[in-house]
């Protein structure tokens, strides 16, 4: 199975005009063979590729699609602002309104600063933490993704070791390991940076242990260091406030991105009072960081987050999908693992060390109109109706049937996937 003719033609042109044909997380290098590289139209939870094939899109733009592609209220707010003033010689009043809104809605936020991408936010948070503490070491969970800047990119080609000095690691949920890492950092520990739950590619997702989250806070306090929560992927998809609010663990700095403008480019760092002066002291900026249209979009997103209905819709759809898949897997007699929150699902098969089964499963699902990923957590969105979920389940039913019919006769995974697994020692 391969992508369509128009997609292949664009890939051939891209191979000449764009280094490597495509780069970053949108390159289809690790995707199943039938995944398209190029798309033409998006609406609600649906996506159409350049060959006109329609999908229910479980990738949700790798996160930004929270309320639905082109959600009318968000789109209208962004459009209206774009007509009057967007990127200008100074910010609009919306910047103040958005900062006030985030401070009002997020328990641990006393202030907010805005930027464009998740990497901008995590990089800015690291600078602020170092400015605040006068220390160097940032502890992160091993293999966790915090963006593509030199200090954190998972593929450090073109990066100097010096740029990654003072970044040290612990294993997620490993209390003893965290204690040892904090101890090793000693007086130089600036901050512990982590995601609300573990959501790395090619690994089962892992909920945070409440005891671990509390330990993070306790160790940071004892060391005079900060806690930074990276909510770029989880933000507002799991809760209408911060993901750890329910645990009663308050971060000092939180990074937001992806969903904040429901697709309009905007990200943010929010923080506690004690970090305010440090946040004011760093020089951080960008030509587009102050643009007003994405802020208008973000205000509309925050309004819908406050209304709350979106979370019910999203979670209802996510649960229906999880239950439907579990029923199908049991009926077809497959050990099928669904890890992470239902709203951010990741699937794998038991007894599938080389991932042939999950790759084939997603490949057939894509051919049948459900855009799934075999290696990256997916994202439910609030535009998904029960009928959309049923459409996905039709595609996965076809995929389970295909696997049963083929039994062990499965195509190998794409070569870059095999190489990635080998590098992970699997
Ligand atoms: N942090 C996390 C947890 C992420 O998932 C991502 C993006 N996938 C980033 C940071 C970086 O965000 P961006 O790609 O917008 O720079």
TrEMBL record:
GO molecular function, one term: transaminase activity
UniProt keyword NAD, yes or no: no
Sections of the chain in a coiled coil: none
Keywords: Pyridoxal phosphate
Matches recorded under PROSITE patterns: AA_TRANSFER_CLASS_3 (PS00600)
Cofactors required: pyridoxal 5'-phosphate
Pfam families: Aminotran_3
Record-linked InterPro entries: Aminotrans_3, Aminotrans_3_PPA_site, PyrdxlP-dep_Trfase, PyrdxlP-dep_Trfase_major, PyrdxlP-dep_Trfase_small
PANTHER family: GLUTAMATE-1-SEMIALDEHYDE 2,1-AMINOMUTASE, GLUTAMATE-1-SEMIALDEHYDE 2,1-AMINOMUTASE 1, CHLOROPLASTIC-RELATED
Protein family per UniProt: Belongs to the class-III pyridoxal-phosphate-dependent aminotransferase family.
Descriptive protein name: Glutamate-1-semialdehyde 2,1-aminomutase
């Amino acid at each position: 199975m391969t992508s369509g003719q128009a997609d292949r033609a664009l890939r051939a042109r891209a191979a000449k005009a764009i280094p490597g044909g495509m780069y970053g997380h949108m390159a289809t290098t690790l995707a199943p063979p039938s995944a398209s590289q190029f798309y033409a139209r998006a609406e609600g939870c649906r996506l159409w590729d350049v060959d006109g094939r329609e999908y229910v899109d479980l990738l949700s733009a790798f996160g930004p699609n929270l309320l639905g592609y082109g959600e009318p209220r968000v789109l209208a707010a962004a459009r209206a602002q774009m007509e009057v003033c967007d990127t200008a010689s100074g910010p609009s009043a919306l910047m103040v309104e958005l900062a006030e809104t985030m401070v009002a809605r997020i328990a641990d936020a006393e202030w907010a600063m805005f930027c464009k991408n998740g990497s901008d936010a995590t990089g800015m948070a690291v600078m602020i933490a170092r400015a605040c503490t006068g220390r160097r070491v940032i502890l992160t969970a091993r293999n966790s993704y915090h963006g593509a800047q030199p200090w954190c990119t998972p593929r450090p080609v073109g990066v100097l070791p010096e740029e990654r000095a003072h970044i040290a690691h612990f294993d997620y949920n490993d209390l003893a390991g965290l204690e040892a890492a904090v101890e090793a950092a000693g007086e130089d520990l600036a901050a512990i940076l982590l995601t609300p739950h573990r959501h790395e590619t090619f690994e089962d997702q892992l909920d945070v242990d409440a005891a671990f989250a509390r330990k993070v806070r306790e160790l940071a306090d004892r060391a005079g260091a900060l806690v930074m929560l990276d909510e770029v992927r989880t933000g507002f998809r799991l809760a209408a406030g911060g993901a750890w609010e329910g645990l009663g663990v308050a971060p000092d700095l939180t990074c937001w991105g992806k969903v904040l403008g429901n697709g309009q480019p905007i990200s943010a760092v929010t923080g506690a009072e004690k970090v305010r002066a440090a946040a004011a002291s760093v020089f951080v900026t960008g030509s587009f960081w102050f643009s007003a249209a994405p802020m208008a979009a973000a205000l509309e997103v925050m309004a819908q987050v406050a209304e709350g209905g979106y979370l019910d819709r999203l979670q209802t759809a996510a649960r229906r999908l999880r239950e439907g898949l579990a029923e199908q897997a049991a009926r077809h007699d497959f050990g099928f693992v669904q890890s992470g929150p239902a709203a951010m699902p990741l699937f794998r098969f038991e007894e599938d060390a080389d991932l042939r089964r999950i790759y084939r499963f997603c490949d057939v699902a894509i051919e049948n109109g459900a855009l799934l990923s075999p290696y990256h957590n997916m994202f439910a969105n609030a535009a998904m109706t029960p009928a959309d979920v049923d459409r996905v389940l039709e595609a996965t039913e076809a995929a389970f049937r295909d696997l049963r019919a083929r039994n062990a006769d499965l195509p190998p995974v794409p070569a870059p996937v095999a190489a990635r697994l080998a590098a992970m020692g699997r």
